[in-house]
Design a protein that fits this description.
Immunoglobulin-like, five-stranded antiparallel sheet, four-stranded mixed sheet, 2 helices, 7% helix, 30% strand, rod-shaped
Amino acid sequence: MKKGYIILLFMLAGFAAQAQQGFGTSNPAPSSVIDMVANNKGVLLPRVALTSTTVAAPVTAPANALTVFNTANTGDVTPGFYYWNQDAVTPANSKWVKLATSNDLLEPWQIAGTATQAASNTQSIYQNANVGIGDFAVTSLSERLDIGSGNVRIRDINLNTGSATDKLVVADPNGVLKTVDASPFNIINYSFSEQQTGRKWIDGSAVYEITGKFYASTDFTAINVQTLIPNFDASKAQFLEVRLIQYNNEGSRITTSVQSFNAATGVMIFGTQGSLGVSHLAGEYFLIVEYVKRQGTDPTVEN
């Protein structure tokens, strides 16, 4: 009889081992394997000293989701709970993953060249995909930096010296930023040396400009361009516009027509065709010549 009770006890124990286990309760939750109930105690998981998130040791062949408490502070591991993340496709990528705490302020980006999240907002931001700002519920990201709505504001910026090769940033009708040649938008200052204006003539030729300064002691109707601007090769220029600006207290500007120009002598006569009676008063003047370069042709003035 006693032998029968012992056999029955082992049978019940085997049955209980396959059912829910209750600690501190005789009525474990049906959805749990183990149900622990206590008012002043907790669960103490195994404590191990990990050396790296990519090294399983000291645990041998850890199962996927195996959880431990790491006590070491070395390499890329710090004290805290870790679980083993088994990569079924590439086992070599399996690693320990730390359960974040309030002290683990992980940033929503990764350290360069790794899959490890940055731990400080002073680290550089690296994303190997498109970054979006705004509501993209309808339209998906299509550019490296895609702003769905709103304005872009730069509160402060370094003022660096520009160069002749700098580009301008413009937006196309879809809002995509592009760079364009800045030369057509450059502000050209007047100079006694030849310079490009950044504009093009009708045939696509570059437009040049040069300035000369002279003083006329008497009234005049003509000047010698080559004498006034000795570094200007008038024989290879097609004049587009010639302007005279008198340098006086009123700052008056005189734009005049050119009646004729002799390329051999450099003499330019002002006035209208058939009338040479138009003269300019004596005084100090600036001569501004706008032109395109022509090879092997006599210069003329476009009217």
